[in-house]
Amino acid sequence: xxxxxxxxxxxxxxxxxxxxxxKAQAATEASESKDFAPMPKPPEGYDPREEIMDRVVAAIKTxxxxxxxxxxxxxxxxxxxxxxxxxxxEIDMTLTSxxxxxxxxxxxxxxxxxxxxxxxxxxxxELVWEPPWHQGMMSEEARLxxxxx
Length: 149
Description:
Elements (H helix, E strand, L loop, with lengths): L1 H7 L6 H18 L15 H13 L11 H4 L2 E6 L5 E5 L12 H10 L7 E5 L12 H6 L4
Parallel strand pairs: 2-3
Antiparallel strand pairs: 1-2
């Protein structure tokens, strides 16, 4: 009887073999797992940057000129938003006036808001003065909020 017990006992593999066996077992279990459906393939022509850009605009809309109760997107202070293939964002923006009291704060507030967007790597803000901002650059929504009709 003692000889039978010894022959049935598995031989411990060396550490490299044990690791390989564990990986193979995990891969087999993962492929057999029915807990999760496979990820669907994105539709042809899908560009994830469009979704990221929507989130970038939403982040910009959280920024306000403290003197005006309308977000800077609707005010028309954002002239350009571009994103490259590495998901770096460049923004050209202006202020309502070169003498705006938040000239040093608002661009950084925008940069921080956009940096908080998942999948955005870097953000560069360029403060521009051409064309000069005027009330006609505001969206209809901003004009309604400010009773400018």
